[in-house]
Amino acid sequence: AQKVTQAQTEISVVEKEDVTLDCVYETRDTTYYLFWYKQPPSGELVFLIRRNSFDEQNEISGRYSWNFQKSTSSFNFTITASQVVDSAVYFCALRPLNDYKLSFGAGTTVTVRA
Amino acid sequence: EAGVAQSPRYKIIEKRQSVAFWCNPISGHATLYWYQQILGQGPKLLIQFQNNGVVDDSQLPKDRFSAERLKGVDSTLKIQPAKLEDSAVYLCASTPGSTYNEQFFGPGTRLTVL
Q1: pLDDT, tens digit (0-9, with 9 covering 90-100), for B56-95
Q2: Measured on CA atoms in the order B61, B64, B67, B68, is the torsion positive or negative?
Q3: Taking CB atoms and an 8 Å cutoff, what residues of chain B touch A45?
């Protein structure tokens, strides 16, 4: 069974500050995918990033970056220079390589104030 | 490309009433998922279809929930009779195939049971 834990319930920042979201996971699978999704007030979940368990290279994509550390089972996500439009609930999720089931964390609500 | 469509967006019913939700996936997507998202939690998979066949309905409360995807395209999720604890957002998602990495989500239907 998979378990994804997002310990931060809410984060509030002022515009242009950086925001780091924590994600810790548990799985018995040796290969898996990790995801970050964004859920704005409109409701739909928007895919942001995906990382394979066998590739620990951390990357930056625009204002988004992520830090994947397999040794500590963590997959943290950072928004640089936050904007008001970044206000949303952010979900971390895990899916084993050969399975279709996405296991989501409880989400972190990010509020960016102007 | 049109996204996943869902209707209605909002529904308020009294307990013991029946309700149905509709989902139209992205054109050509063979796999369709229904999730239940209770307030403050991440989405939980209820059922997965591959074309018009059920792949996994292990977490669907079958005494009151039912779902169908008769022609392998759009799908309907029904609750009969509804309970107070069914108040949640019901999300539909689709992918081209069951092992495709990214699931595309619709805006959801917010159900309130009074």
Answers
A1: 999 999 999 999 998 889 999 999 999 999 999 999 999 9
A2: positive
A3: 43, 91, 93, 103, 105
